[in-house]
């Protein structure tokens, strides 16, 4: 909102003005924390706010006349800005005038020449006093020191302004008194009143008894503020009934016209043309000057007229954009309506030329909202997403309503800060992993990876195994996961024959607050290795003895002697079994099916066949390398089951004539016979 204070000028430093916290309903204890600050366009800081109590006091005495010159109302505008949340209050200080200036006259003394032949009632313009105070404290009346020849009267111009005139009330006699010394006193309406006086020296003349007269007491003109030097403002005209030099008129600015205006305008001394001289560097829309018309008589007479010049504004100032406060970066979860910046937009031109419209591009998630006079708030209009756009360059365009309009642009850079609004994301819902059994401890199994579009700690992902069991044991006894990169390692060797597959979940969690997480299922399939030899299930032997099968003595061809049954705990081709005869006492009598393991006769039995036979069967898988097992089967040819099974440690066949032992005996005997023969030959040779 807005609050207005009134304070008299020249109030001493430290004097209390009010309590801003109480007046605005603000907790004084929060002023310091909310980083309060006072903003003003003045070059001086006239007021202070106590950060603890909110008391508003005078920091520097104010000179109203220096600050506001001749303005009727003197105002100081301040803005109080508070943050967290961002708030703006407008403070207006009305500086009240005190009677601290006495009336003064522009010159130290004034001279008036009066022809002696003038009749009583002749009038002479006296100078106006100037008082920098305003209202009742300004000049209110004039008095003249007592004199038998003159008295003072007040006159009113066409615009209502008053001025003093010296009126002749008794005819003058130069021969009796050539000079009259008067004192003109100006008094203001202060309490107590102040006054100023100036000597008025009246010289009695003998000639030129008519003063020039203007056609109008007040002249009015209007001119554009950007008019070039030499532009005609107005032409004034005065007449003098005298003839000759006494009737010739010269125009000039009165001494009461300020020096600034006399430098800004020129008046032609003979024609009365008022023209522009230089740049019209004024802030006031109406300028007041006094023009004097004086004749060329020996004792020149003069009169004055007022010239009022209205300066018409042209659109020569562009809007000025000032960033009063800016909050950047802002979190991406800021709700719509969050205030980002406070802007001050001013145009020094008055009227329509100083009115400004302000806008930003419609494509941005922001909008401008009017605040106090000449202030706008830049707020969010919709949700933000840092992962899509992390920063914005907002171009603010301000255009005045002049013709042609002037446009000013200013860019505000707003960064978006990250919040933890995105959980980690895996590339798939499940992962299938194949692991060979008999793996080494600590073997790398797989690496899962999740991405998080957030940044910093909000985007740093860590991995862990969710609690579960595998084959009755805790998952952590089987696997471990690297916290930082999601690599999964085996903590034990897998056995395909005991565990063929299992699944578990890996959880990815970011480091935000609160943390967000996601999980993925990993299916592990154990690949088989050929690490198990075939196991012979039938026929079986006990205590290391040979398994015996009884076959009819005269069995027919293709008689099923037995079927070797084996199993392999491995899988697929590692468990594909084939059967082979490694040894048979009679290879022509038996044959073995490689796929079924059936041992059959290849022909009908004969009475001449041996009663006992021994067959060695090899069962081999198809692994790489292949593994095998053997079984020895004893075959007994008998029509009935004997009470006691014979020993199959030998083959039951007649021993061959030339077995290894016989060969060794024959060689030994041959060597002995050769040695003995050689000895006999030696003896015979010796006797001969």
Report helical residue fraction. Answer: under 10%
CATH architecture of the largest domain: Sandwich
Strand arrangement within the widest β-sheet reads 1-7-6-3
According to DSSP, the number of beta strands is 51
Number of distinct helices? 4
Radius of gyration in whole Å, from Cα? 63 Å
Question: At the third CATH level, what is the topology name of the largest domain?
Answer: Immunoglobulin-like
Instruction: Please name the fourth-level CATH homologous superfamily of the largest domain.
Output: Cadherins
Task: Categorize the overall geometry.
Answer: rod-shaped
Structural notes for this entry:
- The strands form 16 sheets. The protein has a four-stranded mixed beta sheet, with no helix packed on it. Strands 8-14-13-10 form a four-stranded mixed beta sheet, with no helix packed on it.
- A hairpin with a 4-residue loop joins β28 and β29.
- The radius of gyration is 63 Å and the shape is rod-shaped.
- It is 6% helix and 43% strand.
- The chain is mainly beta and 688 residues long.
- The protein folds into six domains: 5-96, Sandwich (Immunoglobulin-like); 110-205, Immunoglobulin-like (Sandwich); 213-312, Cadherins (Immunoglobulin-like, Sandwich), CATH 2.60.40.60; 320-417, Cadherins (Immunoglobulin-like); 425-527, Immunoglobulin-like, CATH 2.60.40.60; 535-637, Cadherins (Immunoglobulin-like), CATH 2.60.40.60.
- The chain starts with a strand and ends with a helix.
Which helices and strands, and how do they pair?
Elements lengths: L1 E7 L7 E4 H5 L12 E4 L6 E3 L5 E4 L5 H5 L6 E8 L4 E10 L13 E6 L7 E3 L13 E6 L5 E7 L5 E7 L10 E10 L6 E11 L7 E2 L3 E7 L7 E4 L2 E2 L9 E5 L5 H6 E3 L5 E4 L9 E10 L6 E11 L7 E7 L3 E2 L7 E8 L9 E4 L6 E5 L4 E6 L10 E10 L6 E11 L7 E2 L3 E7 L7 E4 L2 E2 L9 E5 L3 E2 L2 E2 L4 E3 L5 E4 L10 E10 L6 E11 L7 E4 L8 E5 L8 E4 L1 E3 L9 E8 L5 E3 L5 E4 L10 E10 L6 E10 L22 H28 L1
Parallel strand pairs: 1-7, 8-14, 16-23, 25-31, 33-42, 44-51
Antiparallel strand pairs: 2-5, 3-6, 4-5, 6-7, 9-12, 10-13, 11-12, 13-14, 15-18, 17-21, 19-22, 20-21, 22-23, 24-26, 26-29, 27-30, 28-29, 30-31, 32-35, 34-40, 36-41, 37-38, 39-40, 41-42, 43-46, 45-49, 47-50, 48-49, 50-51
